[in-house]
């Protein structure tokens, strides 16, 4: 067998090894489909609120509550899954979340903000935890550390499809079904993807190993892991700012419908960045690599503050997304190194929670800045959040333990 002689060839070979493994195509595709609402609901909520005459503060609040619900519910569902099985909780979550999205679809969020707030929280909290469940299953459907690490890179890159396709699905559904079409489509897609994942053989047969002892704090008893999660809160805040600031910017430009395209272009940049990152070798000091990638993420957001006309904003939206999947893939690897024994599943759920909590705060912050100051100020806050993440990721004296690089 001829060995790949370039980094890109090696990345392509690793990606192909992952994608052709048994069960991987179904698990990965169903997970991506089931997670599409993550890229749909925030924009769909903004459009529904604006359709009913609400302001960006209400839109940002509902988007933030949806993200907060997901942030709180994720680790809870993850811990229950660890102690029971994947399918029942995944399917129950999809049904509950879909019902809450249907409630948001039929009510007037301006006339009933309290009910809308409750529905947004429930929709987020019941979101099926497909992402951590998928990462748990990688070790069961793939063989060797290198294959699992390659799967992390594929995961980080392909999940950007959620944020490419999600906003465009909202745009199409809104055009065909009206202002609430995005929420209805998100509910249906969530259920379809979750059914496909939960009925797959690896998900049905998976059982968690019984830990020898349980600590009430789970993975949060690792101080260095908590520091990583704090950095990811700031990364999530930067993404939340972008999601709400972008509709505010295009609304000021007189073309609210262009928000879907700019958010999708940001995700296209992230997808491209993820593909390029697949060629990177395994880092001996993953913490230092993460710091470098967070600096790049911050630099990518700075040009958005120029807020040029729409044609000039398009390439800036692409550039601002380039570093995100590399940041996430590096964080996946650090979680695997830092998580205490027997807590990896919950640790991945907390990682998602950290990102979601930051996303909620960033959404609320951007809503206030757009209404009270300007979209430019909101975009500037995204860069500030990225810089805060880089500062929090500064390495302690002791590096994370190295991972065995053997296949």
UniProtKB/TrEMBL annotation:
Main location: membrane
Keywords annotated in UniProt: Membrane, Transmembrane, Transmembrane helix
Membrane topology of the entry: Multi-pass membrane protein
InterPro entries in the cross-refs: MFS, MFS_dom, MFS_trans_sf
Residue stretches making up the Major facilitator superfamily (MFS) profile domain: 224-407
Superkingdom as given in the UniProt entry: Bacteria
Listed transmembrane segments: 27-50, 56-77, 89-107, 183-204, 225-246, 258-278, 290-310, 316-336, 348-370, 376-394
UniProt KW NADP keyword: no
Subcellular location: Cell membrane
Protein name as catalogued: MFS transporter
Source organism: Streptomyces nigrescens
